[in-house]
Amino acid sequence: MSDTETLAHLLAEAPSNWGRWGADDEIGALNYLTGAEVKSGLAAVRQHRTFTLGVPVATPAGDHVFPGRWPARHYMVADKAGFEAGHWHPMPGGLEFADDYVSGFAQAGTHCDALGHMWFDDTLWNGYPAASTNGGMTRAGIEPIAARGVVGRSVLIDMARFRGKPALARAETFDHRDLLECARAQGVEIQPRSILLVRTGWVGALRSGAETIGDGYWEPGLTFSLDLVRWFDEMQIPCLVTDSLANETTYEPRTGMMLVLHAALMRNLGVVFTEMAWLDDLAADCAADRQYDGFYCASPTRVSKGTGGSVNPVFIK
Ligand code: UVW
Fold it and tell me: A single Gene Ontology molecular function, please (predicted)?
């Protein structure tokens, strides 16, 4: 790999937020979400309808996961059959119970990534050494993000509907100019510090069986340019939520590098990524009433030293 083929070279001119919120910061662009953003989120609630944005996990058919991961698994530990077989006994008074055990990747299903989840040049978000991931995240893990929560005004950008498709095609790309054009067509403004929801239709296509993940890394999504990274920086976007596995085209087509926005937005700007969200029901409702903004509220599972956490965000219109 020559120097010109590295992320460090590609992002040399790109903005960085390291140090902006102090040497100990672990929540990055969530610092933009102050009381004022909570207030403007609440002001966007006009219809009092709620939507949850998490996909089911540990489904009998097997969840959709990024290549190299495997679906979450669900085991019943106690159930009626266990009581009938004598493995369990009713409590004094007669109460019986069901208990279960779920195991899976922190990045399975709808999930939030910790800022230290990906790195290059041996350095994580805010300059922490990559060795802080050894044996569990002692820096920039999911816990501080879960402790803070992601709360504010949010805007849904429905790229799939804007392009007249149930889902974007394999490897179809778009950038911030497309987001702005789509917002204009939807009659909504992406304001500074908006929590950005972008629908590609991909999770819907996976769930219906119309699409597969395969090994081709052919997901549609946002794709890297310096201008796009600068736009995220200028707009102070705290959190990017999409209905794809990686929130971006896995391969950046121009350079052939992988997951460039994980480097440019997550590692360098501290933008919190939430992936594999279920946006189809919300999008259908927004298309019907033309209200594309609302109040977003989410917090991932507070996994100690975790690299990410499962989340079921709530959007209130
Ligand atoms: C990848 O995109 C590979 O990982 P994550 O979904 O956790 O960001």
Answer: arylformamidase activity
pLDDT confidence of residue 180: 98
Q: Give the span between the Cα atoms of 44 and 56, in whole angstroms.
A: 27
Each residue of 213-267: pLDDT tens digit? 877 788 999 999 999 999 999 999 999 999 999 999 988 878 889 999 999 999 9
Average pLDDT, integer, range 172-183: 97
Distance 170 CA to ligand 1 centre (A): 18
User: Which atom, in ligand 1's list, is nearest to the CA of 68?
Assistant: 3
CATH for 3-67+106-316?
3.50.30.50
Exposure string for 153-176, b = 16+ CB within 10 A, e = fewer: bbbbbbbbbbbeeebbebbbbbeb
**Ligand 1 proximal residues by C-beta, below 6 Å:** 66, 107, 113, 117, 245-246, 259, 273, 275, 308
In the chain, ranges of CATH 3.50.30.50 domains: 3-67+106-316
Angle at 135 between CA 132 and CA 140, to 5 degrees: 35
